[in-house]
Design goal:
The protein is mainly alpha-helical. It is 74% helix and 0% strand. The protein has one domain. It is built from 9 helices and no strands. Helix 2 packs antiparallel against helix 3 and helix 4 runs antiparallel to helix 8. The longest helix has 32 residues. It is globular and about 65 Å long. The protein starts with a helix and ends in a 6-residue tail after the last helix.
């Protein structure tokens, strides 16, 4: 008799095959474009961002302060309600609010200092192009990156507070909070901060190898920001480079936000399947 677990495993196997086929097809497309001397992503003319290193440091301080304020607010409201300590849902929500608030405050600061919406990478909106680039990039990197993550997990097991959270609380509210944080908030805030604020500034510096160095350094900062979760930072470094190339070539963070969101959606979906017991964690 076919069980729900058997069906889930068969569907997962088909999805894995489709991911590898998509990766192979996109690799062929990449090689053909390189041989023809064509850029992988059309280069959109753009001016250097107007902010300086002090603004990047200010953005880091703003994010730290936003986190502290959010945690204090959650702790204060919990204490007022008579509870001994904030529950995990409140703590995750504090992180979500901190990321959103910190990114919004950073954007407001840069706008007040003369930046435009174009400089922030949020305009113009080209949904068809951005979605096409995001889907094509996901097809190229998804299978190799997840396979790399799975191999590294055998060396150093992956650990993340979100996994602990969902293991303790798997109710609809907890799942909704994780989905919102991973698929909406993290891509939006992280792409703005790492790819536009940091990478955009690095591109204005006289670095060896120019934009390539800026992309690599921003990707490294992005990966190291996720250190402490096993060796997950290694595939995230490669993902960060792809995200950086998209932003550099288009002048927009929207393709990177969409790619980041799609990648996180797949990761969260796999995590939920594993925690449900429908597929083995291995």
């Amino acid at each position: 008799m076919t069980t729900a677990s058997d069906i889930a495993l068969m569907l997962l196997a088909l999805a894995v095959m489709a991911a590898w086929l998509g990766s192979g097809w996109m690799a062929v497309v990449v090689v053909r474009r390189l041989r023809a001397g064509r850029p992988l992503v059309a280069d959109t003319p753009q001016r250097p961002v107007p902010w300086r290193g002090i603004d990047v440091i200010s953005a880091v301080v703003i994010m730290i302060l936003a986190r502290i304020i959010a945690q204090l607010a959650i702790a204060g409201s919990t204490t007022a309600g008579g509870a001994a300590a904030p529950d995990m849902t409140s703590q995750v929500m504090a992180g979500v609010l901190a990321m959103l608030g910190g990114a919004a405050a950073t954007a407001a600061m840069l706008l007040r200092r003369g930046a435009t919406w174009d400089d922030l990478g949020l305009w113009p909106l080209l949904p068809a192009r951005d979605l096409r680039l995001a889907i094509g990039s996901l097809a190229l990197v998804l299978a190799p990156l997840l396979a790399t993550a799975a191999l590294l997990n055998r060396i150093v097991p992956y650990q993340h507070p979100i996994i602990d959270y969902l293991q303790q609380q798997s109710d609809p509210l907890a799942i909704a909070v994780v989905v919102f944080a991973a698929i909406v908030v993290a891509p939006l805030a992280e792409e703005f901060l790492f790819r536009r604020v940091l990478q955009g500034w690095l591109e204005t510096l006289p670095l060896p190898y120019g934009p390539a160095a800026a992309i690599g350094l921003a990707a490294l900062a992005f990966a190291l920001a996720h250190a402490g979760h096993g060796l997950a930072w290694v595939p995230l470094l490669a993902l960060g480079i792809v995200l950086g190339v998209l932003v550099r070539q288009t002048g927009s963070i929207m393709p990177a936000i969409l790619l980041h969101a799609l990648f996180n959606a797949v990761s969260v979906g796999l995590l939920l399947l594993q925690l449900s017991g429908l597929v083995p964690a291995s």
